[in-house]
Amino acid sequence: MPEDKDWEAYKVPPTRTPVSERITSVPNPVAFFQTVFNYVVDAPVTFVREWIERQQAKNKFYYYHQKFRRVPDLSECLEGDYLCFFEAEAQWRRDRMVDTEIVEIIRERVGACKQREGPNHFQNCAKEVELLAQVTKAYQDRYGDLGVHGNARTCLMKQKHRMMEERKAQANASQ
User: Fold this and answer.
1) Which top-level group of life is the source organism from (predicted)?
2) How high is the pLDDT of residue 145?
3) How many independent structural domains does the chain possess?
4) Does residue 20 sit within a domain?
5) Which of residues 99 and 60 earns the better pLDDT score?
């Protein structure tokens, strides 16, 4: 490689890009329409959208964490109070759905534990299996034998009959 460099053959690029000069005096119609669109359509829509978002940010509503207030049980309703009967029935249905999901979650945990542990699942998943047995027994005690058309009244009657049988068994055991 030669010692003296020919700077004319290898020119250094300019440090700044030159600004193109306008050839015509007529304004660019695209820039004009973009400006008009921005002020006529985009700015008001953006203002309204931001205002709505500010209003919604003040009072957030999380629909997926909806919490219902607890209503009186069917046993606490007065005779002829049909609104109380309806609310107690709705509360009972929500409680039944929650209890069903609890049983399903525990069942899925047991299945995952059995899958994870393989042949050792009898000793390693004993706690989960015991919890599943307790949860299913509690669910069966409360909702078992009600069928598809079970409601709060039949569930309350089932609970009342079970309590009467337990008292009768205690009375017989103490004699």
Assistant:
1) Eukaryota
2) 86
3) 1
4) no
5) 99
Terminal Cα-to-Cα distance of the chain (whole angstroms): 118
DSSP 8-state class, residue 79 = T
For residue 159, being part of any structural domain is answered with yes
* Cβ partners under 8 Å of residue 142, min gap 6: 99, 155, 158, 159
- Looking at residue 23, its pLDDT comes to 73
Q: Is residue 103 part of a domain?
A: yes
Where b means 16+ CB within 10 Å and e means fewer, 78-88 reads: eeeeeebbebb
Question: What span, in angstroms and rounded, lies between the C-alpha atoms of 121 and 50?
Answer: 56
Tokens of 150: 């079970």
Using CB atoms within 10 Å of the CB of residue 152, give its burial: 0 to 12 exposed, 13 to 18 middle, 19+ buried. Answer: buried
- Full domain range(s) for residue 159: 82-173
The whole-model pTM stands at 0.58
| pLDDT tens by residue, 49-71 | 999 999 888 887 777 777 778 88
d(CA 151, CA 146): 8
